[in-house]
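Chain X:
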Amino acid sequence: MSEANLPAPMIMGVHGVLTLNPWVSPEHEDVFGLVVRRTVSYGWSSFHASGPDGVRWGHNEADGDWEQDQRVRQLAWLQVDVADAPRGQRLPVLPAATVLGDSLNRIGRFRFTGLHTVAPLYEAPDSRADLAYAAEWFALADPAASAEFTLSVASTKAADLPGHAPDILAAALERAHGQLGIEAAPLSSRQGLPASPAEAGLGLPLAGELETTHLQCGQAFRCVTREWSLDMAAWVTEIFIDALRGTGTTHPALITVSKPLSPA
């Protein structure tokens, strides 16, 4: 089967600490229902036979861990199929992150610590022009502020990410347009994740872990910019999706963006 005929699952998980509003009951609300309602409200997907042609994705699954113990957890994740998205559309990284973030903020107080994405790179178009506009958006952040976080990338052995690491770094810096400092960082043994993922802002197991067991450790990067937010994590994920595309990777990739939980 050619790549053009493959299904294109994209998996995303949002990590952090959630304090539920006292009037919200996990027995009556769940991530899937919240995600469906919010996605339809944005017009990114539809569950009606007469809905629009060319939705951004088709829903597969969604869930999350709302355990109220103030530990970092994978609070919300979704799996969607983007194979039928309109021609030329970027992978819906920011729309998916927005839906998950909106869902969490609707039900409680959400402290964000990490984002992971399993991206079907064979569906990713050239996004350099769009990323330039995004850089202008983030340029409006407080110039005196500074935030540091870690990004890791893993893909198949055939992608040879360690061998392409210098080119990936150069491509990512080009797409950041001066709004993001990036440098190579030490790589741990587990798919590029830090040695203590919970301390680093990721709750395990990552959604899509079965789909990523064949992915090899790739490369980790230290990133410095003006803010730490879900929007920023989504933008940096898109930067590396396009950097991987631009350096010849078409295999699925696991991209994590994370920062240790800061004191409340």
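Chain Y:
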Amino acid sequence: MTSRITRITAAIATCALSLGAFAAGVGTAAASSATAAGADAPSPRAAVVDARAAAVDRCSYQVVRSDDSRYVYSVSGVVGGSTREFPVQKEDFVRISDTWFKVAQVDVCAGGQSQAPATLRVTGKLDRPEHYDPSVPRTIRSGALRPASSSVIPKAPRLTSVDRVDAATVRVNWEAAQGSPDQVIVLERKPFYSSELGLWHPYTFRWNAPDGATSMDRKLQRDPGVPAGIRSHSYWMRVVKDGFVSDLRAERPTTVEP
């Protein structure tokens, strides 16, 4: 199983790196063509991270940011006049208003720190810069982020049960969402077959629930080729409101066997 996960990770990383290098190469070629034609080469556009932040509770802060997979990101903050980098508690991708963002929750109390940060900042450092044209910024940053209060963090409804409908279907049930969130999301982790990799691996699907719904039927993956170790299916809830996401640490998947 470990070797399969390693193959998946390596393939995805290689694909992302190849796309990034290709994009950088195209940009270089375009600039060279413009110069050859007598035009000034365009200066690289300043790269910034679009981000917002809010306190989840006294120690956990949520940062919602844009994502460029070429960069490795960190979150730091000004505490007591000095800057500290905060460890990530949990992170995931979330679709907000038809755009994908990365949501990270960081621990501002790590190391015994008790003072709340005055501001936060996201920094991205270019991963493997030797593979990119010099015009690609090596570092990108957000502005100084003043965290909003914990009242802006929505609460996800409790998932109450996952019931069998028939041999190949389950019904996911949850409590009615409170506070009129912009979107209620059912997350489903189950086996997925990758034709490119030629193997099954766990994959998380995200399903938008209709307004007012409190249940959703999902099909089980029962292909006999799925390895025994990854056959289980898991379900949990998430909500989005005003650009922020429910507490990622509070998500408790309910697992069923196909």
